[in-house]
Design goal:
Layout: E1 2-12, E2 15-25, E3 30-34, H1 41-49, E4 56-63, E5 66-69, E6 77-80, H2 82-86, E7 98-101, H3 112-125, E8 129-134, H4 137-143, E9 146-151, E10 154-159, H5 161-166, H6 171-176, E11 183-189, E12 195-198, E13 201-204, E14 216-221, E15 226-229, E16 235-245, E17 248-255, E18 258-264, E19 273-278, E20 284-286
Parallel strand pairs: 3-8, 3-9, 6-7, 7-8
Antiparallel strand pairs: 1-2, 1-4, 4-5, 9-10, 11-12, 11-14, 12-13, 14-20, 15-19, 16-17, 16-19, 17-18
């Protein structure tokens, strides 16, 4: 059963909680609604549950090409409250099409692993899909089959986690996911749309961006897609810090007044001169409004 949201809008006392949210969550999936505080996550859960009626837009459930509304008795939903979560050793023993779980209460003490195991067990314990709301981006990436990213009541992006990580719709989505956070570097789009100028380095893109967009851009590249070496060849910089993270280190390099973070298995000394290279195939390009520029 798919959950189809079409231009959902809702407000409380004149304050807009959701504004034109549309997406299709696939059947039998673990759906995570994720975003910061006041993003509209709980409101969306309540609209899907049928506990509230939207000001405009629709919630539809699609099954075997037959459509039913959220008010239909043929679709069962269950909103799992904080009290149920606090007794997490007792999984719900009901059959439901859609199980909705709001933000994990802070007073329910458990480890991150225990929380995730409990939530995954929910999906295995029922015959339907789970929709979970959280602000924790790590939980969202680990648990989800499908992500719905909200901010201030607006849908930022919806899709599978790989799409969210590799092709974020805007700079907000890019920076919300992935730790350490993505590098956002000022750059210039070359005239042919197939190369960018980052600092003093011209770099070919893996695709082409239509020239009519803009000249001043921002390049996003995650630390695991940045290479730092002592050999010349790349963007010359100076090591600022190095922080151990498991078997790797996060090296921060100052390059022409810009800080670039890289994940490296090699150790470097503070103030050491190094050379930075960005891997072109992983570069994400945003326009001057912070929106993704697709490469074709």
């Amino acid at each position: 059963m798919n959950i189809c949201l079409d231009q959902l809008t809702h407000s409380y006392g004149g304050t807009t909680a959701l504004n034109g949210v549309s997406c299709n969550a696939p059947s039998n999936s673990f759906v995570v609604i994720v975003g910061p505080a006041d993003a509209g996550k709980t409101t969306l859960l309540r609209l899907v549950a049928g506990d509230e009626v939207p000001l405009s837009g629709t919630v539809r459930f699609m099954s075997n090409n037959a459509e039913t509304s959220s008010e239909s008795e043929t679709v069962s939903t269950l909103f799992l409250d904080a009290r149920s979560i606090s007794a997490r050793d007792q999984l719900p023993s009901v059959e439901t099409d859609v199980l909705l779980v709001d933000e994990w209460p802070e007073y329910v003490a458990c480890t991150q692993l225990e929380r995730r195991e409990y939530l995954k067990h929910l999906q295995a314990h029922i015959r339907g899909m789970v929709v979970y709301a959280t602000k924790d981006e790590e939980d969202a990436l680990v648990l989800s089959d499908y992500l719905v990213v909200l901010r201030d009541g607006h849908l930022q992006q919806a899709g599978i986690r790989e799409k969210i990580l590799n092709e974020p719709a805007n700079e907000f989505v890019a920076t919300y996911f992935g730790r350490p956070t993505i590098n956002l570097l000022p750059a210039i789009l070359e005239k042919d749309g197939q190369a960018i100028l980052v600092g003093n380095q011209t770099m070919s893109l893996s695709g082409r961006i239509a020239e009519e967009f803009c000249r001043d851009i921002t390049v996003g590249v995650r630390p695991e897609h940045v290479r730092v070496a002592r050999d010349q060849g790349g963007w010359r910089g100076r090591v600022v810090t190095q922080e151990d993270e498991g078997s790797d280190s996060i090296v921060t390099v100052s390059v022409e007044g810009v800080s670039v973070r890289a994940r490296s298995a090699e150790s470097f000394s503070e103030n050491e001169t190094v050379f930075v290279r960005l891997l072109p195939r992983y570069c994400i390009v945003f326009d001057d409004r912070g929106q993704l520029l697709e490469q074709v």
